[in-house]
Structures are given as structure tokens and as C-alpha cells.
């Protein structure tokens, strides 16, 4: 009977908005594509696992999935609106997991969410916002039937690992941009655009840290869950995800320090340039003060001034002004003010 039904379902399932895939696996191998309405029946069969992938689904599609697995209404409500913090909650015999995704979108770090319903014999993934498709995760799982034989435990691990691994390209993009800003800082002071960019990057990195950090607690709770005990063979995999998250946190902290250094270095370069300009202006002002002072003295037009009647007085004053100005210029050049 099962073989007859399987042969029926081998026909492609009609595309439906919000429904990415709905597949049954047995013993780690893909068995058949199924409609949502048959998911509950397949999930209750021993040795079978149903994986339903959704992307920004409509309310009626979520209700149909809820009906198949008897999902809690509060979890469905959370999965419908993508404004949740990373967490894991227990609803009866189902785990509800929320993880934040990230990828570069138009030069900014775009954030999304993935909501996972995990129960015995099924897993439902719901994606919102900026997130790479899980098609590659599905292909990787199907290419390793022995690992996929661990069922929903392995699929849950694979999705979380994929989410954390996708933080790396985001951090690499930020590192490249920060290094470019640092190189410009050493040549000239930061422009207003550079300062605005540094501020936005620091803010985005803080949001990324807030998105990644709670996954450490999520993995810990999953590893010790009583509702859906994780296969002991799979527990080291969740600890590996935790290690990846901690490395991401460390890289984020390093990047934020680099951004702070770039900002401070930019300010120091700007202050240095202002100091150089101020010294130069002060040096020229001192040089110009000499002829100004002499001209002021001899411009007072007193009648009895000894030098006025001297034949060489004018030439002497001009030479004296030139010598003093040249002396000041030489001195300021030695001080590197000019």
C-alpha cells in the first residue's frame, strides 16, 4: 500500500507561493515529494522524516502546516511575524527554535529570521527576510544519507550550522571595507562619508553580535532538551556549532576594535593636519610681523626722527627687515613649521 501511494506522489508537486519544498526521507534517503495535507500522516510512520521548507508563507499556509503537526498557536503567531529574538521554546512535544540570519545587502548587513518547528518525525523551516536559500543544505544532507539517517536531529544541526557559517562572508566583507578605510586614514583625514560609514558598520556589527550570541544558549538547550532528546551521536555537532558562534563573536569584537581604531586614527590624523596648518600660519604671521612693526614705527610721521634725514636710512631698514625675515624663515624651517 505504501509503495502504491509513493508512486502516486512521485509526480511533481504543484508550485505554491511560500512553499519551497515538502519532502519525506526514510533511512537518510529522499523518498517522495508530498503535499502539505499528507505531511502529518507521513511523519507518524516509523523511520520517516518530513522536512517542509517555507519562505515568508501566508497565514493560510501556516494554518495548514499547523493542522498537520498540531503546532501551538502562539508558535505559529511568532513564525508569521519576523520580529523574534533567537530562542528555543517548548510547546508540548514540539520545539520552536528562532535563529537570526545575515547577509550583505547593498553594502549593509541585512538581517532575517529562520523559525524551526521540530518534532518527532518532522521539521518545518520558515525563512523571513535576508537569508540564503536552504537548497544547498538540503542537497548536502541528501548527499550524506548515513548522517541524514539521524533524522530531524541532523537536519536541525545542518540548518543551524549553515546559518552560523553564513556569518563568515558578512564578516569578510566588513573586514575588506575596514582595511580600505584604514589605508585611507594613513593618507588623509576621514571624510564625513567615511565617518558615517564607520558608524553604520559599528551599529550593524553590534546587531550581528546580538543575533549570533544567543545561539550559544540555543544550542546548549537543544543539546539538553527533554522534549526532543538529541541523539548522543549528534550532540558533539551542536557543540561544534557553539564553537563556531564563539569564533564569530570574537571576530566581531575584533572588527569593532578595528573600527574604533580607524575612527580614532582618523581624528588624530585630522588633528595633526590642523596642527601643521596652525604652525605654518603662526610662522608666516611671525615673519610678516617684522616688516609690519617697522612700517608702523616709521609711519607715525613724527617730525624729529633721526633716521629720516640720513641718506642711507631707507636702505638700512630694508636690509634689516630682510635679514630678520630670512632668519625667522630659516629658524622655522629647522623647527619644521614651514
The overall pLDDT average reads: 84
Largest sheet: 7 strands, mixed
Classify the beta-strand content into a percent band. 15-25%
Alpha-carbon Rg, integer: 36 Å
Return residue spans where pLDDT drops below 50 for at least 5 consecutive residues.
1-12
The outline comes out as rod-shaped
Helicity, as a percent range: 55-70%
- Give the beta-strand count: 7
Please, how many helices?
Answer: 12
CATH superfamily of the largest domain: CorA soluble domain-like
Strand and helix layout:
Blueprint: H1 2-9, E1 19-26, E2 29-33, H2 39-43, E3 48-55, H3 59-69, H4 73-80, E4 87-91, E5 94-105, E6 108-119, E7 122-129, H5 135-142, H6 145-148, H7 152-165, H8 167-185, H9 192-212, H10 215-223, H11 235-298, H12 313-334
Parallel strand pairs: 3-7
Antiparallel strand pairs: 1-2, 1-3, 4-5, 5-6, 6-7
How would you explain this protein's 3D organization?
The structure is a single chain. With 338 residues, this protein is α+β, with helices and mostly antiparallel strands. The chain is 57% helix and 17% strand. The chain folds into 2 domains: 2-269, CorA soluble domain-like (Beta Polymerase, domain 2), CATH 3.30.460.20; 271-334, Methane Monooxygenase Hydroxylase, Chain G, domain 1 (Up-down Bundle), CATH 1.20.58. The protein has helices at residues 2-9, 39-43, 59-69, 73-80, 135-142, 145-148, 152-165, 167-185, 192-212, 215-223, 235-298, 313-334; strands at 19-26, 29-33, 48-55, 87-91, 94-105, 108-119, 122-129. A hairpin with a 2-residue loop joins β6 and β7. The termini are far apart.
